[in-house]
């Protein structure tokens, strides 16, 4: 009787396991890249939203006829929207001073609702320290929950800004911040004459 020689056919279990491991590592690598890309995209969206919020504040200030004269009402003293103001300037008549308080409160609520753990500080730039009655540059720092790689030193560096009073506004811990300075524009501009601050409104 003729005996056939038997040869191994197919692949062994070990080769199959190695192939599965290689494929799994490749898939994990692709997922890691996608997650990092998604994270960067999300952070870019947050920063874009912060810029839009600052533009919104700038437009609110420009809409207030006496914004420059009431600039102190646009200044915040700490993080956390603990501002108290009950008047509704949409339904009630408000003075220009109260309109500034109302706009700041509404704007800070918008920051809180638009960004994760969103918060904001506003202050007069230290470049305006020598200007007595005509300060025209407002610093705005918006913060939101940090979502960065802890090993990325670029995001671990502190962000600080000096104010006209000599204080420092710092980005809160475990937050990412965007800092921007905006010029204060208003229809009515204050000017100093006869030892008093007066307001000039073009066309009035």
UniProtKB/TrEMBL annotation:
<keyword id="KW-1133">Transmembrane helix</keyword>
<dbReference type="Pfam" id="PF22150">
    <property type="entry name" value="Tt1218-like"/>
</dbReference>
<dbReference type="InterPro" id="IPR054402">
    <property type="entry name" value="Tt1218-like_dom"/>
</dbReference>
<protein>
    <submittedName>
        <fullName>Type IV pilus modification protein PilV</fullName>
    </submittedName>
</protein>
<feature type="transmembrane region" description="Helical">
    <location>
        <begin position="12"/>
        <end position="33"/>
    </location>
</feature>
<keyword id="KW-0472">Membrane</keyword>
<keyword id="KW-0812">Transmembrane</keyword>
<feature type="domain" description="Type IV pilin Tt1218-like">
    <location>
        <begin position="33"/>
        <end position="104"/>
    </location>
</feature>
<dbReference type="InterPro" id="IPR013362">
    <property type="entry name" value="Pilus_4_PilV"/>
</dbReference>
<dbReference type="InterPro" id="IPR012902">
    <property type="entry name" value="N_methyl_site"/>
</dbReference>
């Amino acid at each position: 009787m003729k005996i056939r020689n038997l040869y191994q056919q197919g692949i062994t279990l070990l080769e199959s396991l190695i192939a599965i491991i290689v494929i799994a590592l490749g898939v994990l690598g692709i997922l890691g890249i996608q997650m990092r890309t998604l994270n960067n995209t999300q952070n870019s969206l947050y920063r874009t939203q912060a810029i839009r919020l600052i533009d919104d504040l700038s437009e609110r200030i420009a809409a207030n006829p006496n914004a420059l004269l009431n600039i102190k009402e646009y200044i915040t003293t700490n993080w956390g929207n603990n501002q108290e103001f009950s008047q509704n300037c949409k339904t009630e008549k408000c003075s220009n001073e109260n309109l500034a308080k109302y706009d700041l409160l509404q704007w800070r609520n918008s920051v809180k609702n638009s960004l994760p753990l969103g918060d904001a500080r506003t202050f007069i730039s230290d470049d305006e320290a020598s200007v007595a009655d005509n300060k025209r540059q407002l610093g705005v720092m918006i913060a939101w929950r940090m979502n960065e790689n802890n090993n990325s030193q670029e995001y671990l560096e502190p962000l600080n800004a000096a104010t006209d009073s000599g204080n420092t506004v710092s980005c809160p811990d475990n937050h990412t911040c965007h800092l921007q300075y905006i010029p204060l524009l208003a229809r009515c501009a204050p000017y100093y004459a006869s030892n008093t601050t007066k307001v000039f409104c073009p066309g009035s």
